[in-house]
Amino acid sequence: MEQNYLNIKFVSELLNQLNEAFRLEEDVLRDVIVNKWGVHDDHIFCEHLQKYFTELLPHERKALMSIARTVICASAEAYYELIEDNYLGYEKQDNEALSLNEFIDRLQTEGAEY
User: Fold this and answer.
1) Which of 28, 38, 78, 112 is the 20 to 30 A CA-CA neighbour of 48?
2) Among the listed residues 38, 40, 112, the one whose alpha carbon sits nearest the alpha carbon of residue 82
3) How far is it, in rounded angstroms, from Cα 60 to Cα 2?
4) Phi, psi (deg, nearest 5) at residue 36
5) What is the pLDDT of residue 114?
6) pTM (two decimals)
7) What is the mean pLDDT for each group of 10 consecutive residues in the chain (114 residues)?
8) Which of 63, 75, 61 is closest to 29 using CA atoms?
């Protein structure tokens, strides 16, 4: 009988820990430049995230490093494509002082569809 190595609890725990590390490093990571194709090394993990995983086993850290690289690359590419399609839903906009009509005008000026 073949062993199933997909353990949802293990995957969920790794993702939760990685999510927490990203949130804790959010201010620092904003200054890291990632192009539209993502990254080709593990610099972000090694320089910014690994300090949160020192108590994990080597294989767990290896998995997290691979997951982090994959998530960074996939999200950078998807985010680039969203911007190219004029979707600005993730962009910060200072809209609190705008009326609805002013807000719609701003979106139209920026090429976004509403």
Assistant:
1) 78
2) 112
3) 23
4) -65, -15
5) 43
6) 0.72
7) 93 96 93 87 92 96 95 92 82 60 71 51
8) 75
